[in-house]
Amino acid sequence: MQRILIVDDEGDVRDSIKSVLDLAGYTVRTAENAADALDQLERMPIDVVITDIIMPKMNGVQAIESIRKAFPRVRIVAISGGGNFGLAAYQPTAITTNAYLASAEKAGAHLVLTKPFEAEDLIEAVEKLLGVGHA
Amino acid sequence: MVRLRTSFATYVTVCVVAVHIVLLPALFFGMGYVIRKSHEDLFVEHARTFARVLAEEFEVSVALESRQRTEDLLDLAVLHGEARYAELFDGGVGTRSRLGSPDIAVPRHSDLGFGQGGDDIYYIVLPIVHAGHSAELRLGFDELPTQDRIHLAFGRMLWLLAGYLSVAIGIAIILSHRLSRPIRRLQDVSRAIASGDYAQVLNVSTGIRELHDLAVDLEAMRHELVGVNHRLQAKIKEKEQSEARREELQRQLRHRQRLETVGTLASGIAHEINNVLVPIILFTSTVLKDASLASGSRAYLERVLGAARRAKDVVRKILTFSRQLDEAKLTLIDLRVVTMEGLNLFSALAPPSIEIRTQISEAIPLVKADATLALHLMMNLCTNAYQAMEGADGVLTIGLRNSEQAGSDTGTPSRVELWVSDTGHGMDADTVERIFEPFFTTRSVGQGTGLGLSVVHGIVESFGGSITVETKIGAGSTFRVFFPAVRQANSVGDLMVPGG
Questions:
Q1: Predicted confidence band at B239 (pLDDT cuts at 50, 70, 90)?
Q2: Long-range contact set of residues B403-410: C-beta below 8 Å, sequence gap at least 24
Q3: Which of B1, B200, B339, B458 is 20 to 30 A away from residue B244, measured at CA?
């Protein structure tokens, strides 16, 4: 059973992603913030973490770093609103078309999705990270 | 003014006169006494000497022997001695000169003083001893000539003193006038200074040290006041200028802040909207996966999804634009090339009702800019101009020229000016204030996002340039974009400059 953990401070975002993944047959858990996410990761095996980068309390990039350090086998999808607004804390040192993506990738995310994404994009990303199509 | 001059001169004159009124009489009487005394003494001396000589003559000669000889001698006294009476008493017998005045009474006492006795005669009585017996010689000298001489001397002295007084008064008047002139000048300048006129230079030349020092000090004071005045005025002007500059800068800052705020707001809103779009798209997708959905509901939900995707697109455009600015690559470009390219593009798109004119200068220095964004900018300006003239014939002018700044020889760089002019409906003051705001538009709903000019503004800012607008309702508008020019193109290569 492939377990997926969704981390986002917005309930609607969590639940809508969950609805897509539920329909596709995955076991889905949700967490409100990075601390809660790490807690759940301790308690049960998770295959993929889908996390927002911009969140209050611990920010998403730090969360990604922590997860990677603590749970190196977990695959991570970073999702972001895509505005420069949210990245005030991260000064891009180089000009890339997706500066925010760069920080997420640097932190250890395997894939990045920009909000709002289609349901198909989401499924495709998860399947890619799991290596095979879901049985 | 006149009163002052009179009073000072009069004062001095009156003082001089007063002093002399006191001194001159004293002088007069003093000198008069001296004159009178010396004349009297001379007279008396003369009279006594004569009398003594005559007495001696009587004593040594034999005149006494003879009455005739006695009379002759006595006549001598009258003739040569200015005597009016000469008599010799010898043994009770008096021999008198007949040449003297007969009506003179003979005094009994002798040697009265000059001027005494009330008869203008100076009597001398001398004893004579001759041949054993004594006689008495009596002479009466005429005082009148001496008195006349005294009066004459007095007269002369009077004239002298009068002349002296006149000269003294004259000198007093002249001196006081000469004194009052520098004083008056000092007063004039003082008055001028007191009433705020610092322009009159004090140039008083006077021999009097105090006045000269006063004039020097006053001039120094005036000079100081002039200096102070100038400094104050310069300071006030400086203050006004810096005040005006500060107000202008504040106004620009407020404008810039407003734009930034709106820009930041737009970016922030975009982010929030992206977040909100996630559940809209995903939930709707999930529901649409339900095969049992009624076709009507399916149709509606598909339209919801479509609308959500369009929203996503709009937001993407906003974010793309602001990212573009951040990532602009500044290189040395020739704006003529960009302008020609823009012209080609635009004339292909523009309707025939728009006449396109150009005023492109030959020699334009290179500017540091992003070619793509510069083209984008130009197209936006042309589009804006075209939209202002929509529905009517109009003229669109595109110009490019080297715009010298004032005092460009002081090192301030020259600029290249790109301008786009239209003969459209123009804008009122309130509109002009806001045209560069994102989402601000005067067009009706659905006819434009109002992003065009805010894009232009953002691009201009990223080049370090500036943009101005001239407009008149009913006549049209002109947008001028100023690019900082590069003086020498010695390093021709890409200049990677971090944006933002």
A1: very high
A2: B403/B482
A3: B458
